[in-house]
């Protein structure tokens, strides 16, 4: 799986799994939803192992930028909250930083 796709899959799994925990603890959903949450979060960890950057810390740093942007997509698409110019600028900054780190990992 290409690194970019693995990072997007990881973000979707982490956000979805964590949201299920949130739904149980904050929205009163049945605790049985914690079981799929655990499975989904295990999938998140697995997806990150598909990205080879020469070190897990570098992978986590690159993933951080993808996670921020994906979280804002979730905020808009699932929660229906409008994004501000600050949200968009912040996402662009962290994605640019993640891109620089990724390029460096590929060059070195």
Instruction: Look at the helices and sheets and give the structural class.
Output: mainly alpha
- Strand count, sense and closure of the main sheet? none
Number of strands: 0
Bin the strand percentage: under 5%
Write up this protein.
The protein is flat, with a radius of gyration of 15 Å. Helix 1 (3-27) crosses helix 3. The protein is mainly alpha-helical. The protein has helices at residues 3-27, 34-48, 56-77, 85-107. The mean pLDDT is 95. It has one domain (3-107). Helices cover 79% and strands 0% of the residues.
Sequence-ordered SSE layout with sheet pairings:
Elements: H1 3-27, H2 34-48, H3 56-77, H4 85-107
Summed up, what is this model?
By secondary structure, this protein is an all-alpha fold. Helices cover about 80% and strands about 0% of the residues.
Task: List its salient traits.
flat, 108 residues
């Amino acid at each position: 799986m290409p690194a970019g796709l693995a990072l997007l899959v990881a973000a979707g799994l982490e956000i979805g799994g964590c949201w299920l925990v949130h739904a149980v603890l904050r929205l009163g959903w049945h605790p049985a939803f914690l079981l799929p949450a655990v499975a989904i979060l295990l999938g998140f960890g697995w997806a990150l192992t598909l990205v080879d950057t020469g070190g897990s810390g570098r992978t986590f740093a690159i993933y951080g930028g993808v996670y921020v942007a994906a979280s804002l997509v979730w905020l808009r698409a699932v929660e229906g909250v409008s994004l501000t110019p600050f949200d968009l600028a912040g996402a662009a900054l962290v994605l640019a930083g993640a891109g620089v780190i990724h390029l460096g990992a590929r060059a070195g």
